[in-house]
Amino acid sequence: SKYIEELADNLFLTYRFESDSIILDMDIEENIFFDMDTSIPLGMLINELVSNSLKHAFTGREKGEIKIKLYKEENRECIESLSEDCKSTNFTLTISDDGVGIPEELDIEDLDSLGFQLVISLVDQLDGEFELKRNNGTEFTMRFKVTERDDLAQVDLKSQECTD
Fold it and tell me: For a FRET experiment, which of 22, 96, 112, 136 has its CA 20 to 30 Å from that of 88?
C-alpha cells in the first residue's frame, strides 16, 4: 500500500512538477502486502499507466484527475469455510483518468506501442484479466489472484530467529 502511494506521488512530481491542476485521488486498501513476484509487475504496471495518463490524457486541458484504486475482494465462501481454495485472495486494481481518452478505433492489444505491450505482458505475468473503458476518459481495471505461499511463514520465522 505504502509503496504504491509513494510511486504515484513521485510520478506526479516527475511529470507535473510545474502544475497542480492534475489531481491524484488514491483509494488503496491499507496493509496490503505482496511478495516480490507480485509487487514488481504491479509496480511497473502502475508506473506505466499513470505515466501514460500524465503524458497523454490532459493534452490541451487545464484540469484533470487520475484515480488509483486497489482493494481486496471479499470471498463469502471462505468466510464460511476454511477450505484449500481459500488460500488465495482476489484483488482489483483500477487506474482511471478523466482526460481525452483512447480513441475507440485503437485496438490496444494490436498496437505497436511498447507501453501497451508492456501492460499486456505484466497483466499476463500476474495471471490477471483486464478491461479497458473509454468513456469520459480512460479506465483500466485489472483483476488478479494472489495465492498464499506456505514458505512465506517459514521465511518470517527464520528471519526472527536470526535477529533474536
Answer: 96
| CA distances from residue 136 to 9, 64, 97, 149 in whole angstroms, order as listed | 24, 11, 8, 40
Candidates 147, 124, 154; CA nearest to 34 is: 147
Q: Are 109 and 120 in contact (CB under 8 A)?
A: yes
pLDDT tens per residue, range 2-39: 999 999 999 988 886 556 788 999 999 998 989 999 99
Q: Tell the burial category of 125 from Cβ atoms under 10 Å away from its Cβ (0-12, 13-18, 19+).
A: middle
33 grid coordinates: 502486502
Q: How far apart are CA 1 and CA 29, in angstroms?
A: 7
Q: What is the pTM of this model?
A: 0.80
CB of 132 within 8 A of CB of 138?
Answer: yes
The closest of 39, 30, 1 to 144, measured between CA atoms, is 39
Strands of the chain, DSSP E: 22-28, 64-72, 88-97, 129-133, 138-147
